[in-house]
Each structure stands twice: as structure tokens, then as C-alpha cells.
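Service request form, structural biology core

Requester: graduate student, group of Dr. S.
Request type: structure prediction, single chain
Budget code: on file
Notes: please return the result as C-alpha cells.

Sequence provided:
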Amino acid sequence: MSDVKRVFHYNACAHALSGRLTRPVQHEIEVQAATSLPTIGGHGNSRVENFRVKEFISVKAAYSHVSGSEHVGEDGKVFHTTLSTATLEGLNILDVITADRVVARVSAFWVEPNYYTHFNFSGSHFENLKIAGCPVTANLESRLVTDLPTFPDVIKEDKDLCGETKIDPLAGVMHCTLLNSITGKIHGMQPTRHEHIIKIPHFGEVFLAEVLVEPNRRTLTMIRLVLGSPVGGTVIGGQTAANGRTYPPVPPPDDGN
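Core staff response, request fulfilled:
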């Protein structure tokens, strides 16, 4: 099989805002500033200005960018690089969640001939994030999803940390977060280390910097809201996903892929 010509198929997508309101009005929030990367690589972008959903949600600017290309290093190694970003500026959700800027960024390097991927989330951040009117600082850092190149590495690290793995053996995915800690009090509530879920009475639940870990792919969602009452629905702000793989598939090396 050494003479088989393998072609890398890029895979990246991003969007800035989407969701669905169910109460007091029913309203589909169409995907805003969405873009995806063709399997041959290249680049794409999308931008939306001054988007508003009645008096519930507004954003001054929303934009996304994806790119994918091949690079040959000085040592002859082939790198397939993928980048996916989504940005929100001037975000306001029900006057409870506000931020000057929210950036979701995932980059991936697929390396031949070892056929494994390094992922990085550098650049992902919240700028002047306020929750229920209270300034908070979300510190993003997770070795579990940034420093470990292969899916088996993630499984092993997760098991070493927790005594058991949270990987879904059927789906082959793990759900975790980049959030390392939050500083700042929210109306008397003090979020604790590694807690990325904030429950706000008469509003709902706020999920920050969630990551879906899969073999050869990472998906980052900077803000996910499950609204309770008096306004119901779900909202996503800043979601990116990146990587790709070769075809025909490469037999996994001894350390996994």
C-alpha cells in the first residue's frame, strides 16, 4: 500500500451566531456569518453587520474565516494546516450576557508521514465579558485538548486525571472545556475552578468554551445558552471546527491517531 496516492481532504467550518427562541415568541435565529472550507482547501470568509433579533439579541459585527493549505518543511515533511475562526463584536443577549469581543479559534496541523494532528486554540478569548452585569474574567487553558496530539493521548490523560475515562465508547467523542477558572462574582455566585456552567436565576444556564473532542477533529463553542424563563430557547455564539483526513484512510500507527 506504500504506492497508494493519498489525498488530504480538508474539513473546517465556523459561524458566529445561531439559535432558536421558543418563548415568549418563536423565532429561528438563522446562522450568521457562516462559512465552510472545501475539501481541496483554500479560504473563505463571511461577515454580518448590526444584526438584531427584536430586543433580545444584538451584535455590532459578526464574522468568520476558514483556510486550509499544504506546506512542505525544510526536512521534507508535509503539513496540512487548517484554521477556523469566528468573532463577535458588541454582543448583547437580553442585557444579561454582554461582551466587547468573543473570539473562537481552532488551528490544526496534520503531519505526514506520521499522520497525527496537533491542535491549538491560541487566540480564543472573551474581551470585557459581563454576566448579569458583573465583569468576569474567563481564563482559558486545558492541557487535555491543546497539548495532546492524538485521540488515544486524550483518553489516557483523561483516565489518569479522573480514574476513568469520560469518552463515549460508541460515539468516540469526549465533551470538555477550555475554561480553567473564572474570576469575578456574579450576584453573589462564585464560579469554582473547572466549572464552565453558570446558572442564573430567571435567565437560564451559560456554558463557556466547550470543546467536543473527536479523532482528527475539535469543535469549540465559546458561548452556549439554554434559556429558561421568562425567555426560552437556545443560543450559540462563536463556534468553530477544524481538521480533516486523508483518503484512502491511513492505517493507525502504534500510538493511535
